[in-house]
Amino acid sequence: MPATFDNPYRPAPGSLPPELAGRDAEISAAHYASGLTRTGGAAQPILFTGLRGMGKTALLRRSVSAAEEIGAVVLYSEASKETSLTAALKRSIEHAKTQYAAIPTKIKKAFDAAIRALPTATYELPGDAGGITLEPRRAEAHEGFVEALETLNAEVRRHDRFLLLAIDEIQDGAVNDLRVLVRFVHLTAGTAAPVLLLGAGLPNTPAHLHAVRTYTERWRYSRIGLLERNDTIRAIANPAIARGVTFETAALERLVDETAGYPFFIQEYASGAWSEHRGKRVTLGDVDAIAPGVRKLLELSFYDERFRRLTPRELRYALGMADLGAGSHTVGAIAAHLGVNSEDISSTRGQLVKKDVIFVPAAGLVEFRMPLTDRYIARHRPELQRRAK
Ligand SMILES: Nc1ncnc2c1ncn2[C@@H]1O[C@H](COP(=O)(O)OP(=O)(O)OP(=O)(O)O)[C@@H](O)[C@H]1O
Ligand SMILES: [Mg+2]
User: Fold this and answer.
1) Which bound ligand lies closest to the C-alpha atom of 228?
2) Distance from the CA of 58 to the center of ligand 2, in angstroms?
3) Which residue in 176, 169, 167 sits closest to 143, CA to CA?
């Protein structure tokens, strides 16, 4: 029987990989911030940014569990465009209350008070296309909430613990909500009971948070990218070694090539190769057998759908951008490369943003939304060029 349930790799989004490779610097920075906060020193909030599937959530989760080991009480939430951050926080407080079974009753009571103080549910009008949200007494509700958080924080400190707010997908948080929360964190920085804030978000997060700028300019932004060759090898080989299985060197080489160090691809390919192998070795033959299928599936879900929707003009823009290489490029450099004026192609650029192919990481810059888009374009250039005519 194939060892299906024995597969150590974790291709699901948000899942902790068996080997969190290449992120030691980020893990230590977060660990240092936690340690400092624990001893009463205020640490700068840290925000991990990166493209989709780069491992932000994994890093945030790892940092959070390391903090829990040294006494953090964690409120973990995920911001979204559909629900308010306070609603997400309410859930995180409810969750924390049940999770920390061993915490003293007094902290539990403070949890309850915080839950009660949160703004009551927001009302979505049913069947309404515009999505109007009614939030009665918003400002006052926020005030009560901050007070409740303060009480919770004081209680947590009295028991020799500290409070950590972790927010994933922070680029989707409503600026008003973030302002309240961030203000609370900053106010505690001047006291003996500082609260630590760790976050994760897409690379446009700093721009999104610009509106909260009085409080966010001294945040520490840490952008994470593709893994280096050695870390890619560690990420693939070590989980297998832990199960007594080794990858042939040629198999690893091929995987380094195929995945280009992109964490999400690493898990997909390694998982595929694992399912294919028999015995104690993963061979080049195993990798060769699964690679075309995995590549096809990934290209379909990551790029094909997006590129199919582009007009010839939009395709020309994307092709030109890919010529300039990976990373972000100025709007002017792309226009110059295409031999046109920036203004003449601004609507094309707008369409590409709308179609989720590119995004604006900061004013005047654009970047491909999905990692390795330039490589996808290089692989399919003839066909894309034909369609761009
Ligand atoms: N350092 C790493 N080494 C190996 N695999 C990793 C690493 N970090 C994350 N992964 C794996 O990569 C995949 C994507 O990770 P994760 O969901 O954390 O990314 P993300 O940046 O949060 O993506 P999204 O923007 O879609 O939320 C997961 O399968 C995860 O297990
Ligand atoms: Mg994530």
Assistant:
1) 1
2) 7
3) 176
CATH of 309-388, one of 1.20.1250.20, 1.10.10.10, 1.20.210.10, 3.40.50.1100: 1.10.10.10
Under the banding of pLDDT at 50, 70 and 90, the label for residue 265 is: very high
User: Rounded CA gap, 71 and 352, in Å?
Assistant: 46
Residue 30 C-alpha to ligand 1 middle, in angstroms?
A: 17
Predicted confidence at residue 1, as pLDDT, reads 47
Architecture of domain 229-306: Orthogonal Bundle (1.10)
Per-residue model confidence (pLDDT) at position 314: 97
- 3-class DSSP assignment, residue 381: helix
Atom of ligand 1 lying closest to residue 169 CA:
27
pTM of the model: 0.91
Residue with tokens 């006052």: 140
CB 51 within 8 A of CB 356: no
Please tell me the distance between residue 223's alpha carbon and the centre of ligand 1 in angstroms.
Answer: 14
Please give the CATH topology (third level) of the domain spanning 24-223. Rossmann fold (3.40.50)
Q: Which residue's CA lies nearest to atom 25 of ligand 1?
A: 52
What is residue 124's predicted lDDT score, i.e. its pLDDT?
A: 42
Residues having CB within 6 Å of any atom of ligand 1: 10-15, 17, 20-23, 50, 52-58, 235, 263-264, 266-267
Give residue 49 CA to ligand 1 midpoint distance, Å: 12
Other CB atoms within 10 Å distance of the CB of residue 11: 19
Is the Cβ–Cβ distance between 370 and 51 less than 8 Å?
yes
Q: How far apart are CA 34 and CA 24, in angstroms?
A: 15
CA atoms within 13 Å, Cβ hemisphere of 73: 33
